[in-house]
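Person: I keep going back and forth on a fold encoding question. Show me how you would write down a chain together with its backbone fold. Please set it down just below, with no commentary around it:
Helper:
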Amino acid sequence: MSESSTGSATAVVEGPADPPMIRVEDLRRSYGTGEAAVHALRGVSFDIPRGELVALKGRSGSGKTTLLNLVGGLDTADGGRIVIDGTDLSTLGESGLLELRRDRIGFIFQSFGLLPILSAAENVGVPLRLRRADPGEREERVALLLGLVGLADHAAQRPGELSGGQQQRVA
């Protein structure tokens, strides 16, 4: 936005608004067919601006997990549109969705998905390995991340040796 002053009048000129980081339009998802069909989502639409922190809340069975699976590219909608940072998910094939999930989206599942045979540091480093990060860079980044969540002293421990809260922070 810019302001321009001429005499006593002030004009405010609006620039183009930043596009939302996430845009969901008329999203629909059902499971099953016919009379037994469960309509998990019906016409859901919203925008999430870049940098916003959003909480999703609702009763059990209200479609929260379905919505997150769709927005995260883990499932396909029956209808509607999902745009993540300017990319329409419906235009991506499986490899494009894989790349999007690998490079742009992070998930922490209720069951943390840690690999039990790997240490905390190795689990944290898995996404960096998948992105083929340089081993030295990967080691530095893992150390930084474990330090940020207060687990630097637990880097060598396996998930089974960590508390639930520690496992969540590793994830």
